[in-house]
Specification:
This protein is mainly α and 165 residues long. It is built from nine helices and three strands.
């Protein structure tokens, strides 16, 4: 069998130099002209970890792992049925609805406040009106009521053109 350098082994196996060096830790290289070479018959089983995989395979352990995976899958399905967990498209739709709600509430502030601000006499009064309005919108947006997202979602729709505004 040919003698191969770590670079050549890396090229042939697709493993990194670091991985190969770690796997060949106890193997003594053949040194030729400052090159560290390894006998392929000895190193390939170590690089591909063939002996360890055969020794560590345990049918009972694999069955237990499979049973756990199946139980986890069933638990996830049950959580979805009980609506304790949402799928990604539903969550994206809910979050987009929330973004639209927040955006629409903020965009409505100038219309709601324009008359009151026009009648204001001082910058302090304008600041107080704006602060009260922003605080009210923030309270409304941060409501933590059950089904508030569903209610908002049905009332407001979000489109990609909304994001551009």
């Amino acid at each position: 069998m040919p003698l191969l350098s770590i670079s050549k082994l890396s090229e042939l196996t697709g493993r990194t130099h670091r991985t190969i060096k770690a796997r060949l830790g106890n193997v003594e290289p053949v040194i030729e002209n400052r090159s560290h070479l390894y006998e392929s018959k000895v190193v390939f089983p170590l690089i591909y970890d063939q002996h360890r995989e055969q020794r560590e395979y345990d049918l009972e352990q694999e069955r237990a792992r499979l049973a756990k995976e199946q139980a986890d899958g069933k638990a996830l399905d049950n959580a979805r049925k009980r609506q304790e967990q949402l799928d990604v498209p539903t969550m994206v739709e809910l979050v987009a609805g929330e973004y639209a709600f927040v955006r629409n509430r903020i965009k409505a502030l100038p219309v709601e406040l324009s008359a009151r601000l026009a009648e204001s006499q001082s910058s302090t009064e304008i600041q107080e009106i704006l602060m009260a309005a922003v605080t009210e919108v923030l309270k409304e947006v941060s409501l933590n009521e059950p089904d508030s997202m569903k209610t908002r979602k049905s009332g407001d729709s979000f489109t990609p053109s909304d994001a551009a505004e």
